[in-house]
Design brief:
Elements: H1 27-36, H2 39-56, E1 62-64, E2 72-75, H3 78-90, H4 95-98, E3 101-104, H5 110-113, E4 121-126, H6 142-153, E5 155-166, H7 168-174, E6 191-200, E7 203-214, E8 226-233, H8 238-248, E9 253-259, E10 262-263, E11 274-281
Parallel strand pairs: 1-2, 1-4, 2-3, 4-5
Antiparallel strand pairs: 5-11, 6-7, 7-8, 9-10, 9-11
Length: about 280
């Protein structure tokens, strides 16, 4: 019996090539901008860090493989892409937005879905805990390994991959997310987030977050006063994810880990909410 047959992980729906799309019913996509809050302060929180890193590496061509609602950008969720396309249209008179390429693509078939320029992109980005959306229903992480290999294949020699995930080590040990500011979500709306952990064969297999958010009717007319949606994630532990990345690059990379965009030291007093991996292909 499959895990999904006894535990509903998401709003039902499947993306174009079979990758589960947790935004398929449109609920999370509609309320997402409200949930993440002030986009200016949210964006500035990590924009300066990412842009600084890209400039240091002399990056010109960027592939964002989890663009969500906002380079060449791809996402498996057509509902999230709709908002990215809307953002591009509203700012189409700006050169950067006019040249912004947005496509629907699947991590499991990425080399077929995205045309790689020459030896590859200068940088590939997968931020916002996006990769953790990919489940492991086979129980051997084969889909996750394939997806990371495909993502890594888009990086040219000397190029970098920037990918992150929540601090699932902390969540599994304490049953809650680390305290303190969240680097991605700045909403001041009343919200409740309940956490559930699904164990399979004595191993953490999935973390499910049930979101309940109070939605001011003045902001979004076609949403209910209380919006509820469920998102599920694979709980990548730091050390195991580092091993997956090393395998994806066949060991040919320089690997740095940051906690909430700051230099991370194992055992540090303040537990970060997110781990950010920077992998530079060495050959």
């Amino acid at each position: 019996m499959s895990v999904d047959s006894v535990f509903r992980t998401r709003s039902l729906g499947v993306a174009a090539v079979g990758l589960p799309d947790q935004y398929a019913d449109g609920k999370a996509a509609k309320v997402w901008q409200l949930y993440i809050g002030d986009t200016q302060s949210r964006t500035q929180e990590y924009k300066s860090w990412v842009v600084s890193l890209l400039k240091q590496q002399g990056v010109q061509r960027v592939l964002d493989v989890a663009c969500g609602t906002g380079m060449v950008s791809v996402d498996a969720s057509d509902k999230m892409l709709k908002y990215a396309l809307k953002a591009r249209w509203e700012r189409r008179k700006e050169a950067a937005f006019d040249q912004w390429v947005i496509e629907e693509a699947n991590w499991l078939t990425l080399p077929e879905d995205v045309q790689k320029p020459g030896a590859g992109f200068d940088a590939v980005i997968c931020l916002g805990n996006s990769f953790a959306h990919l489940p492991d229903f086979k129980g051997d992480q084969s889909d996750q390994k394939l997806a990371l290999q495909n993502i890594a294949s888009m990086v040219r020699p000397g190029g970098i991959l920037i990918i992150d995930h929540r601090n699932y080590d902390y969540i599994l040990e304490t049953g809650r997310a680390p305290q303190g500011k969240n680097i991605y979500y700045k909403s001041d709306l009343t919200q409740d987030i309940s956490t559930s952990v699904l164990w399979v064969n004595n191993k953490p297999h999935m973390i499910t977050l049930d979101y309940t958010i109070q939605v001011p009717q003045a902001k979004v007319q076609d949403l209910p006063e209380v919006s509820k949606f469920r998102l599920s994630y694979y709980p990548h532990r730091l050390e195991s994810f580092k091993a997956l990345l090393n395998e994806a690059f066949h060991g040919k990379m320089e690997h740095s880990v940051y906690g909430d965009f700051q230099t991370y030291t194992p055992g540090q007093n303040q537990a970060p909410c997110y781990f950010i991996h920077v992998c530079k292909r060495t050959a």
